[in-house]
Amino acid sequence: MNQDFFQEFDENPWFKDAGVYARTVMTAESLPHILDEAIRRAFAQHGPAFVTIPNDLANKEIPADGYYSAAANFAKPVLGPGPDEQIKQALDLISNAKKPLIYVGQGTIGAADEVMKFAKKFQVPVITTALGKEIIPYDFEALLGSAARVASKPANEALQETDLMLFVGSNYPFAEIMFKPDVKFIQIDSNPQVLGKRHKTDVAILADAKKSLQRFIELGSDSAPSDWYAANVDNVANWHQYNDDMMNRTDGELRFEPAFKEINRISEDDAIYSIDVGDVTQNAVRLLKVNGKQPWITSGLFATMGVGLPGAIAGKLSYPNRQVFNLAGDGAAAMVMQDLSTEVAYHLPIINVVFSNDALGFIEDEQEDEDHEWFGISLPQTDFAKAAEAQGMTGITVTKVDQMKAAFDKAVELNKAGKPVLIDVKITNERPIPVEKLTLDPDKYDQQTIDAFKKRYYADNLIPLSEFLKRHNVK
Amino acid sequence: MNQDFFQEFDENPWFKDAGVYARTVMTAESLPHILDEAIRRAFAQHGPAFVTIPNDLANKEIPADGYYSAAANFAKPVLGPGPDEQIKQALDLISNAKKPLIYVGQGTIGAADEVMKFAKKFQVPVITTALGKEIIPYDFEALLGSAARVASKPANEALQETDLMLFVGSNYPFAEIMFKPDVKFIQIDSNPQVLGKRHKTDVAILADAKKSLQRFIELGSDSAPSDWYAANVDNVANWHQYNDDMMNRTDGELRFEPAFKEINRISEDDAIYSIDVGDVTQNAVRLLKVNGKQPWITSGLFATMGVGLPGAIAGKLSYPNRQVFNLAGDGAAAMVMQDLSTEVAYHLPIINVVFSNDALGFIEDEQEDEDHEWFGISLPQTDFAKAAEAQGMTGITVTKVDQMKAAFDKAVELNKAGKPVLIDVKITNERPIPVEKLTLDPDKYDQQTIDAFKKRYYADNLIPLSEFLKRHNVK
Amino acid sequence: MNQDFFQEFDENPWFKDAGVYARTVMTAESLPHILDEAIRRAFAQHGPAFVTIPNDLANKEIPADGYYSAAANFAKPVLGPGPDEQIKQALDLISNAKKPLIYVGQGTIGAADEVMKFAKKFQVPVITTALGKEIIPYDFEALLGSAARVASKPANEALQETDLMLFVGSNYPFAEIMFKPDVKFIQIDSNPQVLGKRHKTDVAILADAKKSLQRFIELGSDSAPSDWYAANVDNVANWHQYNDDMMNRTDGELRFEPAFKEINRISEDDAIYSIDVGDVTQNAVRLLKVNGKQPWITSGLFATMGVGLPGAIAGKLSYPNRQVFNLAGDGAAAMVMQDLSTEVAYHLPIINVVFSNDALGFIEDEQEDEDHEWFGISLPQTDFAKAAEAQGMTGITVTKVDQMKAAFDKAVELNKAGKPVLIDVKITNERPIPVEKLTLDPDKYDQQTIDAFKKRYYADNLIPLSEFLKRHNVK
Amino acid sequence: MNQDFFQEFDENPWFKDAGVYARTVMTAESLPHILDEAIRRAFAQHGPAFVTIPNDLANKEIPADGYYSAAANFAKPVLGPGPDEQIKQALDLISNAKKPLIYVGQGTIGAADEVMKFAKKFQVPVITTALGKEIIPYDFEALLGSAARVASKPANEALQETDLMLFVGSNYPFAEIMFKPDVKFIQIDSNPQVLGKRHKTDVAILADAKKSLQRFIELGSDSAPSDWYAANVDNVANWHQYNDDMMNRTDGELRFEPAFKEINRISEDDAIYSIDVGDVTQNAVRLLKVNGKQPWITSGLFATMGVGLPGAIAGKLSYPNRQVFNLAGDGAAAMVMQDLSTEVAYHLPIINVVFSNDALGFIEDEQEDEDHEWFGISLPQTDFAKAAEAQGMTGITVTKVDQMKAAFDKAVELNKAGKPVLIDVKITNERPIPVEKLTLDPDKYDQQTIDAFKKRYYADNLIPLSEFLKRHNVK
């Protein structure tokens, strides 16, 4: 195709705005340089680079002795721990706080030990972002989970009480809604552009999170056991009990929790979880009992539905020897179901789990909360097991609790034989408990309202943080 | 969600570049004006307008007494026939031409009678763009079809012979490749921006195509019967015979042609054809025996695969009482197969035909022609009938000619009962005849090469235009 | 410079958004096609097209036998008068209206006779957009001028009274502010995208303005003499008298009006006025006594200061034999004063008039009206005559009324000798009368307020429209 | 102005592409956050951020207790010296090199001592980018100057001989043209995106330049005195002599060099040089005898003419107590001469020097070299002294060498009195010596060609590097 014709079409502007680099190669000679630039920028800016290679160039020869090979040399800048002066200033603030929290994001990947050591030493409970789910082991006593709606009860409750936040390696976008404006605020980040972005800071430390937390631990003295910390530990235990009870339920219509029990049961020590967007994100963030070695992938910023399947494929291609899960609701699964073919064609033994409630549950709940007209939330029934079979993959349908174990055992067996599998779990459309609007505290709600809430969400044994604070004499 | 947060996200730049209008509504009060503007521009510029309405506005009231309601007044500008002086100048050129052609595009929709009358009166054979397939009835004696690769043999042959082109209502982008630079060139278009864009013009008439052709007919005298015209008519008849023979074949492995025979058979008088991209586009442009009243939709400019299914849905929603076909290859069908659900959920009785050869045939052929390495053209086998069943639609698989009639009869029956259906036709991956590289003319190729071509493409009875020109003494 | 390097720099995105076409030529072969495309689009879309030609191509040969030459064929589409049915519907509305107006924009350039004939026949006073200043002769009895702030008193007053508007060939952007929502509204435009854009329409006619007005005149009967029309004619005469009085003033500090008296005096029959942005736009729109043959150029949409000088250069280059004025305030003149050189270098005898009040008066007045802090409105004193001399142009400074005539006579003399000239008129910073907030009507304001207004603006003899309506018994 | 109207205008797309941030404030409440974000990004990305504040907001109150104040906390990330392992690897390469060079860019600002210590210790001559002119004192014996055209003779000659380059803190865009592909290449940069971008690297060190050079010095042993180094030192001395001779010339027509002699003479120890674009950039880069404490500003990437005056204003506003020069050619000076007013209005005592040759000399020389038609390079004569006077600034014209000293003494005197001044130096249009096409080496050119070159450029005593290499027995 001649160039005149080619010039009729502009480069896709989306590339330019969505990625860190976008270029159409015009001559074969410039191809190596452009590819090199694209790789370098993708590495440095941690984002997608787009290079368009016109078909015309498919036959052209390029000299082998490249002038450019920067990708081979790429190095990631690492900062130090930050100045002692700032760290001491921060330690002072922490020691004067009554209800401190540490809030960690993806910048603390690889620093779980430091976070947990910090939490115990200074008696500071831990919140992670939803995207940081994988960082801290589920069973750490003071892990409150994440905040807002894709979230856990203890985290939301603690955020309403806290008087100091240590915000580490995070760019959490809902800070204006979830964080109180008047708390003391200490921030550690390696990106100067993010320091102070979400909240006015009392101390802002430009540093590597892991090194900085280490230095906090070196420079600070052990705090005495704190009632605030203890109350939060109790609150976590109560919340975990609630979730365990739900996962162990065998009566009533089938809900999503028993499937998570099975997923936890069969999960290998270094399993990779690719989580789609919707109720499943919320449920996975609460119920997966991760151990700190299990990557957890989802679409955190744009909440793009359909991300579970490609994420799982990427996981399996990158780590062929690790167990990979794709967990998706039926809305998202339907958007990408034709790519089950890809798993079959490339022999990618992935465990695909679809939660089918014939609805876009997460959106339905938003509409309920905001009194919108219900709009666009019902889904046609789909037989995902059959859709898998149409593409050459074994499909299993589960409609009752007692079919669950056999289905997941079968999935493990097929995976071991090198085959992907899909389990379609047909669940009720009952709403998961909304931790962002807990209705448990008798100081805030009348008993009738509380009872209705408990009944709807099977929450008879769920206790508000306020109660634990009272028990521990925290004011 | 507060506005600060909202401002973190820019408008999708793709909207701005892809459409004729893109705006995010910021206040409820401005919604009516912005919607009105969007509608007006979409009409006037004949393209998509994008309005983003933030969820925040879902509850807001808007005064009912709108200030704007321009959509109700929209009118489409229509030009006149162009100046007589130019038309006479053009008629002179035509009467002096030995081998004139008229090449018509979408600007002649609604002007089929004028085109055919013109063709006969001035003895000028007709080419249409592929997108203009629907305009002129298949059985018009001098309809050569379309040019290039998604094309017909007579059109490509005539373009190499012609000495004058009347180019009407078209913006055909491959003109530089397909049109000879030195032919006389007369152009009629209602868009001043397109006059002369594709070829230097001898006469360029800014006019409404239909009115202008009428005026040509009024002002010009009848031409004497022309050997050039007669030779082309014979060539068309020979090409039609070749295609009929292929559609009637019952031996050998199953090819796509017998399915088109059935489609022609069951097509209603005002059927709508939504055609996907790939070999199916080429095959449909050659084999569908349209009558001038049957819309033919595809993705002509960007050749976007997967367009068949949404096109059919749009067709059925717009014209609920007309028969609608979705014809797609397996590559394209796989891209959008999860939307068969939509046909079921909205009770849209569409006839979906998938041609499965487990390959991206059109690209495979390009790679064959340009000596590329074969790359990315094989497809995993999919049982599309089962995929349809998974979504609640009847699916039928056809693997032999003798199953064909029953399958299409069943489709008609289901449609009449208000139900969509999918027929998966399992075909060989033999290449359709490449009319852009015909190897038939003994003046250009040796007999062995010609024989190999004829054998590969079942073309024993196919005769080159050169032979017809000789028979009619055209030099 | 090699292409790799070149690719480091993207095309200027501003080009893409600001113009109708933007392309960087990559090969010499594609240059003719791209230039042809650029010209065609610039003509068709009536806007700037940008072609970037890399320096690398400066030495390359291009074959002379161009394939493209569309510019030569360009034709502008012209519509008809619109359907009689719509015109009759509109005539009915007009004949039933009590206080009709016709509001004409640039789409009526060339149709002054039709507009004036229409106005008299149907007894409808005329408003023009500010950009349409040149269309209708100043001395037409029913020409109310333009509306809003760069405007005339009679137009603003009539808009508050009217019950029907005929809106012709205009896309006036302040319609929402200046037009009443409930008037009957008839629109004529050749651009379907503009019909209804500014106001809900009762009749929307897609048509050529001139042809359509002719048809109105043919189809409609003469209206009886109307009191509404007569009152407006009187109002215009009173307003003209006020302006004449101001232009004839000889006492007090020097104001801008006496300079306009001189400009009117020396203006040739086909003079071209290039008007800069600021108070000068407002003053020129009120005071220039144009005759319908004198083009009037300014920056109407973005109000770009500094536009007067380049506009005058463009005017003189396009029409070397016509008299050209550049009228600018000192703020705008300072922005582009280095281009006086260009007038000298290219021997362009232009009359440059600068009005110096050491302030950005137009903005100052906005800040006064909206109670802003005064900000960024004072200017350093500049000796523009000396600045002209520095660049080889004769500069004249006028500080008193009695120097005015000689200065302008000298300007004419220099121009006749082929030389440009600059006259720097040093004026007071008194505010021009704000017709958008007239304080004259005793039904609306107390006498003290009216008196203060009259005193400040020398408006003792200025009479509100309400008074003329009373005199003519219009209710 | 209501929002509907406002929405008619899109944000200026240029802002979005040219800056690091672009946002229109939509509500008064969001103003503090958006300003904070803009400041933070401007700091972090070292570029302009654009915030558009609609006039509507000018009266709105904003709560004083801001949530955001990130600008106060901004910190710049600083890396370490890089790994010892890499530094040792680099030291090995350097000790094995015969003709090493160190090439330093703006990343070494503040590291002049380290660069000079490195140069002497390892016997490595130094090249700076043109933008790095200010870093190393002019009189450092082994400072070769900068490369290419805005450049010095010794740097260009050394680049053709070198076998190893240490490339530090630079993103020099002409590397592909000026650097040999096969030299050993060591790079130090703090930006991972730049490592390897301009040349394949043998060692690529992600590090802070200053710290890394210190570590080189600590880890490496002293090199023995090197003939290569000595030859380059001699070459620098010869080049300096040539420039001194030119600056001291008193006969012939006035050239630019004597003015630079005066500028050097009156320059204070911490003077700031704002240099415009054109021949003046080239001349300043060669002739200003900077001492390492004198900032040197120009437009290095886009070579934007007219940058000298605003640069000087910025310099004076930022450092009111330092001497500031604006050095510009007449082409550039004419583009911005109306802003001399600004220096007067804000009492900014700047020394403006204009070099007037009535031509765009730099472009003229490019056209000479590339055999283009001469196009667009002549300028109208302007009396810049008078133009300054028109704006209230003292202007001085110099046409002879013997007026020079008095003019610059007067400038100093006026500056001391708090007043800006402009000196217009009227010079010949003789071409400055083209160091990128030296014609001196008898091994490469015949004597006649050499003689013509020497005559044209007064270069009788200029000696090629090849001669010094011979004298020092370097092969």
From TrEMBL, chains A, B, C, D:
Keyword annotations for this protein, in alphabetical order, are: Pyruvate, Thiamine pyrophosphate
Give the Thiamine pyrophosphate enzyme central domain ranges: 87-215
Q: Which InterPro entries match?
A: DHS-like_NAD/FAD-binding_dom, POXB-like, THDP-binding, Thiamin_PyroP_enz_cen_dom, TPP-bd_CS, TPP_enzyme_TPP-bd, TPP_POXB-like
Q: Does the keyword Lipid metabolism apply?
A: no
User: Sorted alphabetically, which CDD domains does this protein's record hold?
Assistant: TPP_POX
* Domain of life the protein comes from: Bacteria
Ranges of residues in domain Thiamine pyrophosphate enzyme TPP-binding: 276-425
Task: Give any GO molecular function from the UniProt entry.
Answer: thiamine pyrophosphate binding
- Similarity comment text for this entry: Belongs to the TPP enzyme family.
| Protein name, entry field | Pyruvate oxidase
Q: Which organism is it from?
A: Lentilactobacillus farraginis DSM 18382 = JCM 14108
